[in-house]
């Protein structure tokens, strides 16, 4: 999030706000986004793995279920 947006929001509402706080919040936001991206990648990998397991499954009906997704 741009510093000017953080500054305009926080400086109007809290007296303790300064540029160091903007940098701190930007770093925290970036860490959260990086962590979330990693979680989405792990989820996609698990979904792909599960799909491939269903695709090769020998139980009747499950292979057709996998084909729908």
Q: Can you give a write-up of this model?
A:
The chain has helices spanning 3-13, 19-55, 62-68. Helix 2 packs across helix 3 (62-68). The model has no long low-confidence stretch (mean pLDDT 78). The protein has one domain (3-68). The chain is mainly α.
Tell me, rounded to a whole number, the average pLDDT: 78
Number of strands: 0
| Structural class based on helices, strands and sheet pairing | mainly alpha
Give the helix level as a range of percent.
Answer: over 70%
Percentage of β-strand residues: under 5%
Number of domains: 1
The whole-angstrom Rg is: 22 Å
Q: List the quaternary state of the chains.
A: single chain
Main beta sheet: none
Features:
80% helix, 69 residues, mainly alpha, 3 helices
Secondary-structure map:
Elements: H1 3-13, H2 19-55, H3 62-68
Helix pairs in contact: 2-3
Brief account:
With 69 residues, the protein is an all-alpha fold.
């Amino acid at each position: 999030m741009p510093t000017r947006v953080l500054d305009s929001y926080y400086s109007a509402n809290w007296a303790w706000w300064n540029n160091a706080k903007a940098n701190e919040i930007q770093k925290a936001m970036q860490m959260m986004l990086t962590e979330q991206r990693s979680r989405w990648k792990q989820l996609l990998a698990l979904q792909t793995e599960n799909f491939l397991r269903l695709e090769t499954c020998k139980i009747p009906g499950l292979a057709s279920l996998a084909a729908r997704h």
